[in-house]
Amino acid sequence: MVHREYFSPVHHYFITIKRADIMTNCLSLVGDDYWYMCDYNQVINACTKEMFLEHGDNRRLSIRDVKIDEEILKKRIKNLPQIIFEVSENCNLRCKYCVYNGYYIHQRSLSPKQLSFETARKGIDYVYSFINGRKKKEFNLSFYGGEPLLNFNTIKEIVHYGKERFVDWKLNFNMTTNLTLLDESILNFLAENNFYVVVSLDGDSDNHDAKRVLPNGNGTHAEVMKHLEHIKKKYNDYFQEYITFSAVYSFDLPLQNMHRFFSTHELIKNRPIRFSTVNTSNTTYYEHNLFNKDAYRSDVKDIFSQVLVKIREEKKQSGYEIFLYQNLVSIGDKLKVRAYTTMGASCLFDSRLYIDANGCFHICEKINNRFSFGDVDRGFDWPKMTAMAQEFQKAIKTHCSNCDIRFLCTQCFVTFAGDGEFKPDPVFCEGQQKAIVANLEKYIECKQERLI
User: Fold this and answer.
1) Nearest to residue 390, comparing CAs of 413, 415, 365?
2) What angle do CA 34, 39, 40 make, to 5 degrees?
């Protein structure tokens, strides 16, 4: 008996195969030529399906709970690699897709609040008391906002204190900035201290200036490019090693513009780029910025074809194209996973610690502020952290255990964070399904041509 559930777009559908000895879910791909075997986390040629099911039942993924208690969390915290400081709750720009602009229902608004050095010092001292004595003597102090350069004096104080505190450690400094406030003294400080700087740049002037604007509505692309040119001219080696880019794409803009800019601009094309799209979860943003989904999918298909041409002809790829290609490689890595935990892709407070301008602790810089777990004065609230992780694991088991793409999904605390409780946004789930189907088909195409 075969039961079919149709999945958008039309030529993709989930099938539940039911036999006397087996029941499993499959997702059709590439016009039914290939199948993603959901319970096995494997892609197979459709013609081998019966043979696979006959001999492959022992390949089903094992799924286990993660044990979560205070002692386990304390052990994991000892490996914490970085603190990210929310240096300022304010920004000199008013980017139209910003999570703090009022379109995101669970996020705070911009405010004049700034992080004080005294608050940062307490946070450094408290974290150091936990990680001191471990074998790996490397740590990162990172700066975020709002716009961190609005509070540059505090950044300088933190850097100086960090060097005093982390004696005999390899201490790295990182910052994400819109770069519009850069001046000579700031540039000299960043270069002298080998700051890794992630510059927010959304492509050409048309795309960038459509969203990344000053309070008066004027674009900022020309200012950012002017500062980048100056950095390269004055500190070329520093520019080549320490400057990278973060590009945010809003679906109502031409994707081809972004691809063209990052693939051809002489200053940018060879630099690493982190690409993301405007968050569609828990927001009304796209109610005000409508877009054509078919046009977007056509652009994605065309850009992917251009990337494949470069790979086939062994031409050098731009940083943006390398990012797209690595996304497909990561699909292959996920398909190799043979064990799965009910924590999904989430950390257990051990990938970073975000300290906001008030000194409160958060899982990371992306999660909304309804999930703090202590502060620089009281320290970690271990019972709350334990309960939070257990609640998230329960949410994963409740909402994802029967999902056919659960082994490939990027769900984490952030994507489940609602108004003080963890639950997925249906918009996120729908987007993940479509994105994973598209990436699986691109992955298959690359595998067919042995490009991966």
Assistant:
1) 413
2) 65
Q: How far apart are CA 67 and CA 101, in angstroms?
A: 38
Q: What structural domains does the chain harbor?
A: 2-60 (no CATH), 70-341 (3.20.20.70)
Closest among 282, 285, 284, 265 to 273, alpha carbons compared: 265
Report yes or no on whether pTM surpasses 0.85.
yes
Per-residue pLDDT of the chain (452 residues), as tens digits, is 333 333 333 345 566 665 555 667 888 898 889 999 998 999 999 898 888 887 766 778 888 899 999 999 999 999 999 999 999 999 999 999 999 988 888 899 999 999 999 999 999 999 999 999 899 999 999 999 999 999 999 999 999 999 999 999 999 999 999 999 999 999 999 999 999 999 999 999 999 999 999 999 999 999 999 999 999 999 999 999 999 999 999 999 999 999 999 999 999 999 999 999 998 888 899 999 999 888 888 898 899 999 999 999 999 999 999 999 998 899 999 998 888 888 877 899 999 999 999 999 999 999 999 999 999 999 999 999 999 999 999 999 999 988 889 999 988 999 899 888 999 889 889 889 988 999 999 999 999 998 88
What is the DSSP code string of 233-246?
Answer: HH-HHHHHHHEEEE
Decide the pairing of beta strands 12-18 and 23-29: antiparallel
Torsion from C-alpha of 264, 265, 270, 276, nearest 10 degrees:
-90
Residues in the chain, overall count = 452
Q: Give the chain's end-to-end CA distance (angstroms, integer).
A: 36
Report DSSP letters for 128-188, one per residue.
HHHHTT-S--EEEEEEESS-GGGGHHHHHHHHHHHHHHSTTSEEEEEEEE--TT--HHHHH
Segment (H or E) for 258:
helix 255-264
CB of 17 closer than 8 Å to CB of 26 = yes
Tell me the C-alpha distance between 377 and 121, whole Å: 11
Q: How far apart are CA 263 and CA 377, in angstroms?
A: 48
Residue corresponding to tokens 């100056």: 230
Report, in angstroms and rounded to the nearest whole number, the Rg of the chain calculated over CA atoms: 23
Task: At 176, list the tokens.
Answer: 């994400």
Tokens representing 179 are 């770069």
**159, 173 in Cβ contact below 8 A?**
yes
